[in-house]
Amino acid sequence: MKLNFLPNSLKNFDKKALFDRGLTFDQFPSKKLENWKFTDLNRILNFKFKELNILNEKKTFEPKEKLDFEHNSIVTVNGDVSNYDFGNGNKKFENSSDSASKKIILKVNKNHPFANSIGEANNDSLLANNIAFSDRGINLECLSDIQKPLVIYNFFVGDLENKFINNSNKIKLTNSKTTIIEYNIDNSECNFFRNTFQMFDLDNSELDYFVINNKISNSYNYIRNSIKINKSKYKNYIFTSGVKFKKEDNDIFLNSENSSTEIYSASVLKKDEHQEVQSTIRHMAPNCKSLQKIKTILKDSSKGIFQGKIYVDKKAQKTDAYQMSKGLMLDNDSEFTTKPELEIYADDVKCSHGSTSGNIDEQALYYLMSRGISRKKATQLIIKGFLEDVISEIRTTNLKILVESHLEKSL
Description:
Number of strands: 23
Distance between the termini: 33 Å
């Protein structure tokens, strides 16, 4: 695979200096790396793409698809912020000045959120590419409670065939209780690779963050989230069925006492789709909690992976940490792999993990069918029950309906 570097206008990084430091931009991660032992991205991309061209073009687009409940919104087109509506009407985002309401500030992206990680980029080609070539993304700050959810519409349009999209986002909450929904809509029908790095900074706040795919997508996606939690609560809901490839890495830091994080994921994989959720939750302070529930349904030779590590610092007494992952295979050709890990240096903690995978229980099917239910309907009921303890964690009716519709379409 050939990787074509086209010039762009990122001001804050000298790309030549990065090249001169010997950074590798075209050798993507393979199974030789511990964090990639179940996902050989280098092989996958070389098999699918003859070449990748860095996307630099900016595109205008008038979206017609909107969710049918009250919300604030930000619209991105191929990763670039296009317009926003914070309750005062739809406005075009100008990339020369910040746009603000009393509670929400949408800032111009002047500095890469991972600017201090250049040293790490020596061993991370995806980070090196993102730092060097990202020229689009969201820089958002919430300053108090936001009553209506904020929907980030990510539209992908136009000829994106063989394009390499690098975008970086920064989201900061201060004294804020907020729900953010990242709603992905791929209208391109193209094979492209999206490389996304995101920084979350929560201070005395609560964030419910949803990621939902609206359509089947031929895209290949890598997402890395770095989340710093200070006296805050962070919940992440992942519903990304329908993309050809996705690996999501979550680095979560519970930095102050009585902070918490929860991750819920429910996905339906089919037609050779490959998805991985990886999380490292670092308990760095006493009396913090973490919870992870990962549910994956697989068929048609798809592959699902969960790697979950819980790290407990010696200062983090009274830690309460739990992770659970379950895979339900609808055929014998799919694969579900898990790697739970505990690294504990405190002695007064409660940490546990569990993992199961298998096919649909034939006895349960027989029981339902003996009561006049068709095999197809019985299978659907079992699947719904399998996902229920993730879906039940959604507290807002409109969002629960949206997620249920997404999962039903995926099946």
